[in-house]
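dumping these here so i dont lose them again. two proteins, back to back, each one seq then structure tokens. dont judge the mess
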Amino acid sequence: MTLQTETISGTLAAAPRVHAVRIPFVVPAGIGRLHVSLQFEQRAGCQLFLAVFDPAGFRGSVMRPGAPGTVVLELWLTAGAASPGAVPGAIAAGEWCALIDVERLAMATAWQLVISCAPGAADAPAEPPPPPPDAEPRAGWYAGELHAHSQHSDGTPTVATLLQAARHADLDFLALTDHFTISGHREAAQQRVPGLTVVRSLELTGHYGHANLHGVPHWIDCYVDDRPEWTINHAARAVRAAGGLFCVNHPFAAELGWRYLEFDWDLADLLEVWHAHEGPGNTLAFGLWDEHLRAGRRITGVAATDSHDVRAARHRLGAVRTWVYAQSSTEAALLAGLRSGRVAGSRGPMVDALAWRADAPAQQWPMGATAPAGSLGLRFTSTPVAVPWHLHLLKRGAPWRVFAGPAGVPLSVELVDDALPGSYYRWELHAAVPLGDYPDDRWREWHTLLAFTNPIMVAQAGGAP
């Protein structure tokens, strides 16, 4: 038998705008290798991605943002191996589908899809991934990165390089969040880097926002646009059903910000309130977080690097960390810790917060817990800070108290406050930086932030959480 090739061509019009084009094709029986390529002219305002599905579901995706010119997106797979972004496995006979994801399209663009089926016996199936490395059995704080990309989507590093960089940065866990695909999970499991837990994740990369789907044991359909039968809310529910966490990413990142107006925020588990590349957008993200906290939603705030190249300064792992208190370093324990809200974000110091009944100090509540209304003791602690600092206590999102201190000493700040029903307390640690002609240095700006805690909630009237 000889190679079987099919070429399909078309043109995408700039209007009316479509978000995806699905092209069915048939794979005959007895195929040992499948190769799919998409060619188009990438220009300013034009960006296309490619995904492939077999009769049972997702088999891979490929994306290549970059300079203008002729782009060929290629994806291949066999039973035992696959290109980055693709999932190895049996090549089933039947109707497959190529999906052209239209990320941007400012002008009419011609495309050509080439499907090549190579007959032959299937090669040996891919080895099942080994069990994860032994976890730290201790309950305690674990530092990690919740947003990082590899060559399986638009990142520069291999999975091996990414994991080694995470361990070199003294991280305890790393979420592998490649766009669209879970193909890197198997490779990450095979690396088995001692002392590092890989959280199996992917980034839902929609046309109205991005979300990390953390702790998913299988692929979750992340193509949610122009599909009334499968919306962003369906995807979020599927993540929870799989035991994972749904994280809204960089909500104010211009056209990559969160614009799913129909999204049910009760389905959000996490929110990126600090993103290494978003600058002033982080200030807005904290405001959005407070809006939902005031509405009674338990959304855990997290920090992220969104690393695409561990060699680049802005993408270096470890400069931004999310600290999670967990019962061990397993993926399940880390997810439970994130879900509990005993979490802090930091650009340096390790911080913590605690509340207790002023008249019964043995009754205590950490971040994420719900304390009763009434007189509460509140404590913030931090490892030494490298610069002079000021510390903000926020009550129901409003600035309540401000403290200041010098560099180089551990922090421990305590006070007693009348906790109102339905309120909450959270802390922000900032560098003391004068701004322009303003003599004060007690600013809560994105570039002064050093660390933040998650809230300690206060029960509603009647004791309801």
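---- next one ----
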Amino acid sequence: MAQRGLRLPSHVTLYLQFGTTDVRDYCIRQGYMETFHAAGARILQPSCGACANCGPGSSERAGQVTVSSINRNFPGRSGPGQVWLASPPTVAASAMAGELLSFHDLQRRHG
């Protein structure tokens, strides 16, 4: 993403929250954090978050749309707005594109 000069559109906020400290530490060792930061992502430490409607990443108003890799959805689970469930690659691609988009389609657009 960032290696190709892609950055988040100004109307998009991308939060990345690790499920465990082991996953966070792995991402640090692999150098993924630099890519996430360069793309404009906001990194959250492992804890409960948007999937439980606590913390950044939850919608704040009914008109907001969230694309998330949480594992289940029901009205109000992640705030008052709409929530689309997607794979982590689709979430990242959608954030970078500013619209719901697969990672494969993002790759085709940006070669």
